[in-house]
From TrEMBL:
It is found in: Cell envelope. The keyword Coiled coil applies. This is RND efflux pump membrane fusion protein barrel-sandwich domain-containing protein. InterPro entries: RND_pump_MFP (IPR006143), UPF0194_transport (IPR050465). Belongs to the membrane fusion protein (MFP) (TC 8.A.1) family. Keywords: Coiled coil. It comes from the Bacteria. SUPFAM superfamilies: HlyD-like secretion proteins (SSF111369).
Length: 337
């Protein structure tokens, strides 16, 4: 019987302790009045910029996915992923045995028809003004055969060149679809991807209301998602004249060139980020953080001094974290939120 009584007493004590803890928490965080903590800021002069923030990604002006203009067996592969290549360097080729034989036959055929034509020219020499029909027929037939063989050689030469892939610009091999030989490559199948890291730029899309504010030369601060604490300087180098096809609404391409050296080991094609386009910028002007500025029916105002006097102000350009103060307060004034 005593054990049962003790058990119930323990439960009552635990329940009472729990209620006390809950009551204290309610009092501390809800009922008890909070202290009036207000942030302050001393007005100063500096640079204020009106910015337009657009999302985009890194691209390369020199970026190509190379493919053969003919089908055939991959006979030679001379590069691997990550390898640096020069402009015009041979990268790979298909089996050239039969096309090369055709090319050699065309060379021999041209030599034969050219020799025949030279022989005919010797026969009709000195008859430029009194050439007979028979002589004209002989000369023309020889010229036609020579011309046909020349065109056949050019075709054979083109067909042979279609079996080779060369680097269109200096850069890095970023991908190789088939890193081995002996496989059949269909016509126009992408084989080797080459990108020139020195040609990187940042591209964003702007709608018709935004693009009206942009022009070549606008300064830009670029922040990549991969490196959120780093800013890279840039400048608008191209604003599209026609809308991007396939987009919802009227959207234009805007290219931003990097104006400072970037780390080739860090930047990659396809990296996303934000571009802060500086539309207007003023130096050595009064400014205040936007969170200290309020407004009512009369206008914009700010709380000044320890007494938090309400002072109406006139503002100028507005940036993301700074607002220009044209009149109403002076440098050194302390304002409160």
């Amino acid at each position: 019987m005593r054990k049962i009584i003790n058990f119930f007493w323990r439960r009552k004590i635990l329940l009472a302790a729990l209620l006390i803890v809950i009551a204290y928490g309610i009092w501390s965080f809800i009922i008890s009045p909070k202290k009036d903590v207000r942030l302050s800021y001393q007005v100063q002069k500096g640079t204020v910029a009106e910015e337009l923030v657009l999302t985009g990604q890194v691209k390369a002006a020199e970026h190509a996915f190379l493919s053969f203009q003919s089908s055939g067996e991959l006979a030679w592969l001379g590069v691997a992923e990550g390898e640096v290549v020069k402009k015009g360097q041979r990268l790979a080729n298909l089996d050239t045995k039969i096309p090369y034989e055709t090319f050699e036959s065309a060379v021999a055929e041209l030599r034969g028809t050219q020799a025949s034509l030279d022989n005919v020219y010797d026969q009709v020499q000195g008859h430029a003004t009194d050439e007979s029909f028979a002589q004209r027929d002989l000369r023309t037939s020889a010229e036609v055969r020579r011309d046909k063989s020349y065109r056949a050689l050019e075709i054979a030469k083109k067909n042979l060149s279609n079996l080779y892939l060369t680097a269109p610009f200096p850069g890095i091999v970023s991908s190789v679809t088939y890193p081995f030989t002996g496989i059949f490559i269909p016509l126009s199948q992408g084989v080797i991807e080459v990108v020139n890291p020195d040609s990187l730029y940042f591209e964003v899309s702007a709608d018709q209301t935004e693009v009206a504010q942009l022009k070549n030369g606008v300064k830009v601060k670029i922040i990549l998602d991969a490196y959120p604490s780093e800013e890279v300087d840039g400048v608008v180098s191209y604003v599209g004249y026609t809308p991007i096809s396939g987009e919802v609404g009227t959207v234009y391409k805007v290219k931003i060139a990097f104006t400072e050296a970037y780390d080739l080991t860090k930047f990659r094609v396809g990296m996303g980020g934000d571009a802060k386009l500086i539309l207007t910028e003023k130096e050595n002007v009064l400014f205040a953080p936007p969170e200290f500025i309020s407004s009512d029916a009369t206008g914009k105002y700010i709380f000044v001094g320890p007494q938090k006097k309400k002072v109406y102000i006139e503002t100028g350009i507005e940036g993301e974290d700074r607002v220009e103060i044209v009149s109403g307060i002076s440098a050194g004034d302390t304002i409160y939120d």
